[in-house]
Amino acid sequence: MFEIEPITIPSEANSSKWFDFVKDGLDKKRTLMLIAKAEKKTVGFVSATLPREQTFEVAQSFGVINDLYVLPEFRRKGIGKRLLEECMNRLRTEGFKAVRLSVLPGDENAIRLYQKLGFRIFLHSMARKL
């Protein structure tokens, strides 16, 4: 994935750190990971954080979708939508009342998908190099 989507996982070294981080989260039940397969090949996934404890009181408990990824040749086939819907169902089952995610402003396909599923702009995040 890091070769195709360098902004998500910018290097092979980071990919194994990411894998270890996700595995630890799964073991401690603070991460949800759903995998999409086609012909025994992994073609996509969605991962979410299940924040069980909040530092501050919040109006609604919310899960956070961290990553949604579908291999380019499998996009526009409904896989991402199904992954997101199942992820939201699992978050609801876990007792969360809302879900948040971040998206790059130029990723129009992802933005359209999220809007179709009822996501709306919640806040704007900004960055700059120093």
Give a short overview:
The protein is an alpha+beta fold and 130 residues long.
Q: Helix/strand/pairing class, anyone?
A: alpha+beta
E-strand count: 4
Looking at CATH, which topology of the domain at 31-116 would you report? Aminopeptidase
Rg (CA only): 15 Å
Oligomer: single chain
Strand order of the largest sheet: 1-2-3-4
Low-pLDDT ranges = none
Distance between the termini: 28 Å
CATH architecture classification name of the domain at 31-116: 3-Layer(aba) Sandwich
Which class of the domain at 31-116 in CATH terms?
A: Alpha Beta
Going by CATH, the homologous superfamily of the domain at 31-116 would be Gcn5-related N-acetyltransferase (GNAT)
Order of helices and strands: HEEEHEH
Nearest-integer average pLDDT: 84
Shape: globular
* Discrete helix count: 3
The fraction of residues assigned to DSSP E strands is: 15-25%
Measured as a percent range, the helix fraction is 25-40%
Biggest β-sheet strands, sense, barrel: 4 strands, mixed
